[in-house]
Amino acid sequence: MQDGPRPVGFMGVQERKIEMLFLHPDYFRKGLGKIFVELAFRDLNVEYVDVNEQNPDAVKFYERMGFRTFHRDATDDQGNPFPILRMKK
Question: 2-88 — its CATH code?
């Protein structure tokens, strides 16, 4: 997503899950994250999202949208010690 020539955010989707969602901090709390997530579920058949447990703002964002953790991995997909929360509505 762009604001003129300036990129403000992007999302990565793979195998029915949101792998990543990033927004420029100037665009936090403006509804863009919600738009990305709604688009992913509506148009890309996403079923869940992986969230880095060490990012409490991201966890709260998804919880406010009605997501709940249904699985926790102690490491990320590459085996690094970054706990991942698998969340769905």
Answer: 3.40.630.30
